[in-house]
Each structure stands twice: as C-alpha cells, then as structure tokens.
Amino acid sequence: MMGSKSAYEFETTDSKIVAYIDSTLRTNQTHIEENHLNNNHTNKYRIELSNDIGGYSCRLYYDTLYDKAYLEKDGGLYEAGTDFARYIDSFLENTKSLSI
C-alpha cells in the first residue's frame, strides 16, 4: 500500500523478555571470520538494551534460507542460536530495531 509506514521499533519493559535477551547477548558465542550477510534472505535487526545508567547495542542477522543466525557485537561477528533469532524475529516481523 503506497504511503503506509510500518513500525520500526519494538519496546518492552517485561523483565522476562529483557532477561532472556540480555543473557543471550552476554553469552560467549563462537567467533566467525566472515559471512556474506547482504542478501535478500537475511533479516537484519539492531538490538538495543538500555536503562538509566547506560546500555549497549548489537546487530542480529537471521539468514532464513540457510537457517543461521549471527550477532555483530564488540567489533566481531559471532554465531547465534536460531531459536534466539526466531524469538526476536517474532517481535519484529515488520520492523528493523528493538529497544529494551
């Protein structure tokens, strides 16, 4: 539909959702050297976690064709679980960023 805008953010203060996302982002994942993430079958999301004293952000790449997920954080690219990617994707099916 021409001229329509979709929402570009999902925001929550639900402590269970925040705790799960925070725990997953802080878990050590396997570092990978390079992957071609600029294609038509990779969903790209920016995830931000913040509170009154600060926060951090990363990018999630979810390759739906090959069912792989990657987190770009701390200057590197890391493998991530596809369960986590599907969880984030379920909130953001029509959006591109997540703020918590």
TrEMBL record:
Instruction: State the protein's name.
Output: Uncharacterized protein
